[in-house]
Specification:
Elements: H1 2-15, H2 25-40, H3 44-53, H4 58-65, H5 74-81, H6 84-96, H7 98-108, H8 112-123, E1 132-133, H9 134-144, H10 149-166, E2 174-175, H11 188-194, H12 210-223, E3 233-238, E4 255-256, E5 265-266, E6 276-283, E7 288-293, H13 295-303, H14 307-332
Antiparallel strand pairs: 1-2, 3-5, 3-7, 4-6, 6-7
Helix pairs in contact: 2-3, 5-14, 6-8, 6-14, 7-12, 8-12, 8-14, 9-10, 10-11, 13-14
């Protein structure tokens, strides 16, 4: 086994990154183990055994090096998530979990359809939660992916703390190639900071317990500043070329209401006096759409730092809510 792992390491060093050959994996692992032992009281022998059993996965390294989203335009991205089946399954999820979703809305102020859409986009309502062992994903990325190794070492640290706190077997937990877990796909640090025991059964299970998954997503949004009953994003028109000056530059709202006209942004919507807005461009097949995002849209991007992702969640949420309301109306008749 050790010989095999050494061969894998050498092959990865040659094929994947010139910087990897200069990375002293053994030293980094020793430093990590010493930190976990001195700072948190972990047993060094147990951690060495864990790392010896963890797999270094080239599949994981390939996947994280080539994220599919970067090559997609909005109309392509939208077609992945705004399908009839995903909308219909979202309605079923809302019907089945209606009481929990309403309880989360009452406690945190997050609309049920937004919570549902997040889970729908992330894992198709819990059906696709990932098949990689989380320990393999985080071990591979923490020590064999120099570009973001520091980030993933922190996530590995958080994962080991999480497993100890919740009484999980770290070798048995499954997730995405980046170590995201459960129905809402929380990374380890998010799990520890935002996941909650929403049904009060003394365990936070976001894999199999929709109550905890729903409550955890709602808590995440609330902690990131969701504004109850406030708008998310509105479609606008642009004239001239001045609007191009305010495209890009991140996702955080940076435009004042008073600046819109000077950049050729036309809207009939009512904006609050001091709120910040963000102009976003979405590429369709034959034309581009322009939208002004409010703070709540920015909050969605804190879940996944992509304006495509956030719009997919928002539009899926609208479609689910519309169909759910029609379904509820028909059932009531």
């Amino acid at each position: 086994m050790q010989k095999f792992k050494y061969i894998v390491f050498i092959l990865l060093s040659i094929c994947l990154s010139p910087a990897l050959a200069d990375t002293d994996v053994v030293r980094l692992q020793d430093e990590f183990i010493k930190k976990m032992e001195s700072q948190y009281g972990f047993d060094s022998a147990d951690l060495k055994k864990l790392f010896a059993e963890a797999i270094v996965s080239e599949t994981i390294l390939d996947a994280i090096s080539r994220p599919a989203e970067k090559s997609l335009q909005w109309h392509e991205y939208r077609n992945i998530f705004l399908k009839e089946k995903r909308i219909n399954e979202g309605v079923k999820f809302m019907v089945k979990n209606h009481a929990t979703l309403k309880a989360a809305e009452q406690r945190f102020g997050i609309p049920p359809e937004i919570i549902t859409a997040i889970i729908g986009v992330e894992t198709f309502y819990g059906r696709i939660v990932g098949s990689y062992r989380v320990v393999d994903a985080l071990h591979t990325l923490a020590f064999y992916y120099p570009k973001r190794a520091a980030f993933f070492r922190n996530e590995l640290e958080q994962f080991l703390l999480l497993a100890r706190e919740q009484g999980f077997d770290p070798m048995s937990l499954k997730g995405s190639y980046a170590g995201a877990m459960g129905m809402p796909q929380f990374i380890s640090s998010s799990y520890r900071h935002y996941a909650i025991d929403f049904d009060a059964d003394n365990i936070i299970d976001i894999w199999n317990n929709p109550d905890d998954a729903i409550g955890s997503v709602a808590n995440y949004f609330a902690e990131h500043g969701w504004q109850k009953d406030k708008p998310v994003i509105v479609k606008v028109e642009v004239v001239g070329d001045q609007y191009k000056k305010v495209l890009g530059n991140g996702l955080k709202p940076d435009l004042n209401k008073s600046e819109l006209a000077s950049f050729g942004i036309k809207s009939n919507s009512v904006f609050e006096k001091n709120e910040k807005l963000k102009l976003l461009e979405y590429k369709q097949k034959t034309n581009n759409e322009y939208w002004l995002a409010h703070k709540n849209f920015y909050v969605i991007t804190r879940y996944n730092h992509s304006y495509l992702y956030a719009m997919a969640v928002y539009q899926l949420a609208l479609a689910i809510a519309d169909r759910f309301n029609n379904t509820s109306h028909n059932l009531a008749q």
